[in-house]
Amino acid sequence: MEQPRCSGSSKPRESNDSTGFLHPGSVALTGVFALAVSKASDLSTTVIGLRLQPILVERNPIAVAFISEYGLVPGLAVFSVVAVTALTLLIEGAFGVLERTSAHVDAAAGRWGRLVCYGVGSACNVSFAVYNTVLILSVSA
């Protein structure tokens, strides 16, 4: 004979949800996509600014090293790929370790943490692109 089951559950619904936006793969894929698109906006505004306005210079010393080594567009492209890859490995590695080793970080907390980290990285890239655009327009005026 089967024992009666309680209708309520002590686990949050999203921890059992393996589909939809909060699925671990969806969060990582969405985060990497947002990071890549936002980095591409930074890259494109940087290239436009440096090509159209000779008075503007790149101030990131790491990007400058890539530009010196590979040229403007290839250097910034390589730098962007390296930056997105490094941040993705850092976020996924850190949350993967936390989820496996900490009793206090469950899958739902890991998903929300990833969303926050990818969101902050993407917001930074967008802010760089906006700043570049303002610089280009202010020098052009």
Word description of this protein:
The chain is mostly helical. The chain has one domain. The chain is built from 5 helices and no strands. Helix 2 packs parallel to helix 5 and helix 4 runs antiparallel to helix 5. The radius of gyration is 21 Å and the shape is elongated. It starts with 12 loop residues before the first helix and ends with a helix. 18% of the residues are buried.
Keywords:
141 residues; mainly alpha; 0% strand; disordered N terminus
Indicate the topology.
Layout (H helix, E strand, L loop, with lengths): L12 H4 L7 H29 L8 H10 L1 H30 L5 H34 L1
SSE pattern:
HHHHH
Oligomer: single chain
Q: What's the rounded overall pLDDT mean?
A: 85
Q: What Rg is obtained from the alpha carbons, in whole angstroms?
A: 21 Å
**Unreliably modeled segments:** 3-19
By secondary-structure content and strand pairing, the structural class works out as mainly alpha
Strand residues, percent: under 5%
> Which outline best applies?
elongated
Tally of helical segments: 5
Largest beta-sheet characterization: none
Q: What is the number of beta strands?
A: 0
Integer count of domains: 1
